[in-house]
Amino acid sequence: MTSLKSDADGGTVGVIERSLPYAQAKEQVRILVEGLLQRACLKQPPFVPEGIAYLQGVRHIVLEPLGRIDGCLLPGNDGLTIILNKERPPVRRNFSCAHEIVHTFFLDKSHNVAFRCEVGQPDSDCEERLCDYGANEIILPTRYVTEVLKRHRVSMSLVTKARGWFNASYQPVAIKFTELSEEPVALVCWEWGDRNGAGLPKLRVSWRALSRPLREQHIFIPRHAPAPPNSGVCQAYSLGHAIGRMEEIQLGSLRGTFFVESKRFDYPGGRYVLSLIFLDRTVAC
Ligand SMILES: [Zn+2]
């Protein structure tokens, strides 16, 4: 168990009204997280959630087996307790801790509500989505990532390094760096499967993220689109090492010959490939 100092006033506990429209609540979460990082004097990654939890009246952080649950936020006589699932990997526990901290923004002042959370559930309600968003902002602050992108161009190598700097998972790091990039770049995640029960099992688009220039162009990349058999994506999937080369891309409205970096990631029970598709590069940076 980690016991935290108690010199904080819990000043931003319960300051977001649950009835607030989603977009407004999201902006409030972003501002509050930024304020917490400043008050805690956290200026360099990794942005450790335990470093700001005490500011929100969290007195104890405890590891316990929780089954399917990722984390809980519990009220108590001497303050709040965050319980994290000890069976989850450290990086996921880090995110869960940040998620529970963001719940304190919505907590009623009497602290008489407890939360039990499964992080990243697709059917999550608004507050759960806002807590995932806020947790991402704690661990990968937009302001800091934007500063990094002024000095480095996004690449698979940068994503790999940044994962270590921020103590975060590959996918959220890759998404954040892609979405905040001012270059025309698309991030595609490929996984083996069919098309919702139809079509042959192939390596297919699972999800994608776009940088601002491509969002403004309304680039469309369809889910489940297959990777060409001889593509670098398929080679990266089968060989396991990163591949960077010019490739013919035919994905929805993204069409042409572009420089593509692809890298395979393995996890217990599966694997996936992340590809960065650069519209204005011909070589690796
Ligand atoms: Zn939650």
Explain what you see.
The structure is a single chain. By secondary structure, the chain is of the alpha+beta class. The chain is built from nine helices and ten strands. It folds into two domains: 2-139, Arc Repressor Mutant, subunit A; 144-278, 2-Layer Sandwich (Beta-Lactamase). The strands form two sheets. The chain has a five-stranded mixed beta sheet with strand order 1-2-4-3-5, covered by helices on one side. The chain has a five-stranded antiparallel beta sheet with strand order 7-6-10-9-8. 39% of the residues are buried. Zinc ion binds at residues 99, 103, 115, 117, 128, 131.
- Strand line-up of the largest beta sheet: 1-2-4-3-5
Number of strands: 10
* CATH first level of the largest domain: Mainly Alpha
Q: Fraction of residues in helices?
A: 25-40%
Count of the separate structural domains: 2
Mean pLDDT: 90
- Our measurement of the CA-to-CA distance between the termini, rounded to an integer number of angstroms, reads 44 Å
Tally the helices. Answer: 9
CATH architecture of the largest domain: Orthogonal Bundle
Q: Which ions and ligands are bound to the chains?
A: zinc ion
Low-confidence runs of at least 5 consecutive residues:
none
C-alpha Rg (nearest Å): 20 Å
The name CATH uses for the topology of the largest domain is Arc Repressor Mutant, subunit A
Shape: elongated
SSE order, one letter for each helix or strand: EHHEEEHEHHHHEEHHEEE
Strand content: 25-35%
Largest sheet: 5 strands, mixed
Structural class: alpha+beta
